[in-house]
Amino acid sequence: MSDIAEKQRIARETTKLFQDLCEDCPDEDFEVWEAENDPPDIFFQNSNIGLEITDYVRHDSQSGREILSNEDSQQKLVEKAKSLYEEKHPNKPLMVDFDWLSGAKPYKNEMGKLAKEIVQLIERANLHEVETIEYEDFEDMLVRKYLHSINVYLNKDDMRHETGNLWKSDSAAWVGLSPNEIIYRVRKKESYLPKIRDNCPRCNEFWLLIVAWSKPSLATHAIPIEAIEYTLSTDFDRVYFLNQLSKQCFRVK
């Protein structure tokens, strides 16, 4: 699938989720943009509404991109350790989650050693229902550079997931949402609004949808009340914030 086709797929799925979560969103068919420079992202034909979709990234800065890069490396290590564990213990499903040290980014040439150490630590654990492997338990292992703790749970039949193993990476990079962060995203997208209007003369209204995805640095545990109650001034007719992880959606303008 091409990059444009993938972006179109994401835009289509995001709009369907927006329709499910937001009563304001028109419950009707819509068109998805066909080219990179063909705004708006979504056009609701019957309502004549153009919808622009933008990602919410922590501060939308270099630090935000670094957090994403760290999370990708962390996830690759989790997947490698999980595969190694499944090879050695195909009939002993576990649920495992990882608590990372701040800024942890395992290097590619360390992945093999780190994965082996993680499996060794889990094998050592005295499992009944749940076991927390603490930082002190890592001794002189390489994992001390990256992990704060590992939580291991016996996976019961009613908690099975695919092979029965559910391993997830809980980064410390979860962020809160403040009015200032919303304003920054809106102002940045607002600069393109004249072009969006020119490209869609059929649109009577233009909405902006800010989407926080399920990666920790792209989403929030909870949306503070001060952000929910904040009223934004913008040239967009409406602005909504959608949290894909918690399935929350609220209007800020």
Structure notes:
- The protein has 253 residues and is of the alpha/beta class.
- Helix content is 33%, strand content 22%.
- The chain has helices spanning 3-21, 62-88, 111-124, 179-190, 193-199, 225-228; strands at residues 30-32, 42-44, 49-55, 94-100, 130-134, 147-154, 166-170, 205-212, 238-243, 248-251.
- The strands form two sheets. It has a six-stranded mixed beta sheet with strand order 1-2-3-8-9-10, sandwiched between helices. A four-stranded mixed beta sheet has the order 5-6-4-7, with helices on one face.
- Strand 8, helix 6 and strand 9 (238-243) form a beta-alpha-beta unit.
- Helix 2 crosses helix 3 (111-124).
- The longest helix has 27 residues, at 62-88.
- The relative contact order is 0.18.
Short summary of the structure?
The chain is an alpha/beta fold.
Order of strands across the main sheet: 1-2-3-8-9-10
**Helical run tally:** 6
User: What is the string of helix and strand elements?
Assistant: HEEEHEHEEEHHEHEE
Low-pLDDT residue intervals, each spanning 5 or more residues: 59-63, 157-163, 172-177, 216-228
| Fraction of residues in helix | 25-40%
Overall pLDDT confidence: 77
Approximate strand percentage: 15-25%
End-to-end Cα distance, whole Å, is: 35 Å
Overall geometry comes to elongated
Radius of gyration, Cα only, in angstroms?
22 Å
Structural class: alpha/beta
What is the tally of beta strands?
10
**Biggest β-sheet description:** 6 strands, mixed
